[in-house]
Fold:
Amino acid sequence: MIEAIVYNLTAPMPLFFVLGIFATLIKSDLKIPDALYIGLTLYLLAAIGLKGGAEIQHVGLLSIYLPVMGCLFLGTSIPIAGYYILRKWGGFNIHDAAAVAGHYGSVSAVTFVSATQFLSQLHIASEGYTSAFLAIFEPTGVITGILLARIALQLKDRRENATVSDVNDYSWLKTSLHESLTNTGSLILAGSLVIGFISGEDGIHVTEAFFGAPFKGILCIFMLEMGLVAGRRLMEIKHVGVFLVFFGILIPLISGFLGVMVGQVTGLSIGGMTLMGVMAASASYIAAPAAMRVSLPEANPSLYLTASLGITFPFNIAFGIPIYLWIANHMAVI
Structure:
């Protein structure tokens, strides 16, 4: 495992991420234009969506039934467990606990892409359709987190014998679904999956020159931007408390272990088990914040953004991915 961690930390993508953090810490004026960042995001999501869709066409929809069920299980159980921990041991209020938990039930596409490149460099094969699981995790975790808040608020309202308020207004579900499914990241990923499924291998061959060869280089620039953003969030760690720091490290390890187990049970390869663990361990910082701002405006954004982007994301990029591979290797022989 130590060798895998060292190998991961010396690869170009993580090093560009470290460069971004370093640039922030020394207060450099290095900046990636917003328009370029959006373009890079669209490119990466479209690339992984096309590949995943083509692979689903190749293996057939019935072949991914069990892994999809596993994704739904993870996407609901992780935020439920996270919410309980944050409420019982962290002392978080309902809104903050639900918002943070929802982020951890959702998924980070960039962490997933980094993991696929890590496995590729080690020549470890994985099921090409695993990128489709991103589209399952994303809304499931967000909706579960918001649902937890609504249920808790309703129970609190009843206990206090107050007048039934807007906790009984279920229009939030429509809003949450809309934010989760139609935001830029989710839409381009889902759309690319459909396009890849329709066009198949021929579509991959036609777009190889654009979505294939340049992918790793573009990912490096994207990781540089993520390092800049994470570096700014690192500055806020002292304001969110020690408990959230431990939560942002320990919960991914537990969720990652659970994800690897689910991957094994649903018949995935070692590479697929690793990626399932990575998705379970990651936390959203694109779709989830957008949905939470609308559905849970009372929640403190600094808590869920710092936890997901300032703590969990760097941890997974540096150490988490090799750890989940190590777990997958050991579980595969059980």
